[in-house]
C-alpha cells in the first residue's frame, strides 16, 4: 500500500474522487471539499484516531471514509441510504484500491444511518445541516453517540447551540471546534 505522508498528499488524492453528478437537494447532498476532508482526516490521524475501526455515516461518495482508509484505518463501514451515492463511493474506493492507496477492509451498507448499530471506535460524518428538514443532523448525532466515543462531525456555525445542547443531553463533551469555510 502506498503511504500518504502529508495532509497535502491526502488532499490531492481525495480531490481525484468522483462527486455527485445529480445531488438530491431534499437529502442535502453535497460533496465535502477535498481540502476540508483532508484537514479533518489529517487532524484525526495526528491524534491517533485513524488506526481504528470507523464508520462514515451518510457517506455519500465516501470521501471521509476513504480518507480514513488511506490513513490506515483498520476497518471502515460506509453507510448511506442512497444507492446512487453508494455506487459512486464504490467506484471511488475501487479506483484508489487499484492505485494502491487502500489496503484495509471495509463494508458498504445501504441503510438509513439511524439503523446502523455496529459499535466502532470513531464516527466520521458530514450530516445534512437541516436547511431542508429542520434538525436533520439530530438523528446522525444521536446514533453517533450510541456507536462511538470519538466523533468527528460537521455542522453549520449557526447551529452550534443546538449541537452543544444535544451533546450535553447525551453526556458528550465537545473537545475541539474548528471553524471552517465550506
Structural commentary:
There is one protein chain. This protein is α/β, with parallel strands linked by helices. Helices cover 36% and strands 14% of the residues. The protein is built from six helices and five strands. It has a five-stranded parallel sheet, sandwiched between helices. Helix 1 packs antiparallel against helix 2 (34-46) and helix 2 crosses helix 3. The protein is globular and about 45 Å long. The model has no long low-confidence stretch (mean pLDDT 87).
Overall pLDDT, averaged? Answer: 87
What's the total count of β strands? 5
Structural class: alpha/beta
Helical fraction equals 25-40%
Instruction: Work out the radius of gyration.
Output: 15 Å
Note the gap between the termini.
Answer: 31 Å
| SS element count, helices | 6
Query: Segments where pLDDT lies below 50 for 5+ residues?
Result: none
Shape: globular
Give the DSSP E fraction (strand runs of 2 or more residues): 5-15%
What strand order characterises the main sheet?
3-2-1-4-5
**N-to-C SSE string, H for helix and E for strand:** HHEHEHEEHEH
Largest sheet composition: 5 strands, parallel
Structure in a nutshell:
With 182 residues, this protein is an alpha/beta fold.
Amino acid at each position: 500500500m502506498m503511504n500518504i505522508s502529508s495532509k497535502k498528499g491526502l488532499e490531492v488524492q481525495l480531490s481525484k474522487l468522483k462527486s455527485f453528478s445529480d445531488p438530491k437537494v431534499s437529502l442535502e447532498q453535497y460533496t465535502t471539499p477535498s481540502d476540508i476532508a483532508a484537514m479533518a482526516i489529517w487532524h484525526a490521524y495526528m491524534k491517533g484516531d485513524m488506526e481504528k475501526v470507523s464508520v462514515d455515516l451518510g457517506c455519500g461518495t465516501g470521501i471521509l471514509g476513504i480518507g480514513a482508509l488511506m490513513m490506515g484505518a483498520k476497518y471502515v463501514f460506509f453507510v448511506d441510504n442512497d444507492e446512487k451515492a453508494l455506487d459512486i463511493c464504490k467506484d471511488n474506493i475501487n479506483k484508489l484500491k487499484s492505485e494502491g492507496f487502500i489496503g484495509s477492509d471495509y463494508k458498504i451498507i445501504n441503510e438509513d444511518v439511524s439503523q446502523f448499530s455496529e459499535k466502532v471506535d470513531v464516527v466520521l460524518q458530514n450530516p445534512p445541516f437541516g436547511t431542508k428538514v429542520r434538525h436533520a443532523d439530530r438523528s446522525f448525532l444521536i446514533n453517533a453517540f450510541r456507536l462511538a466515543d470519538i466523533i468527528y462531525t460537521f455542522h453549520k456555525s449557526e447551529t452550534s447551540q443546538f449541537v452543544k445542547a444535544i451533546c450535553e443531553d447525551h453526556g458528550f463533551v465537545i473537545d475541539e471546534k474548528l471553524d471552517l469555510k465550506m
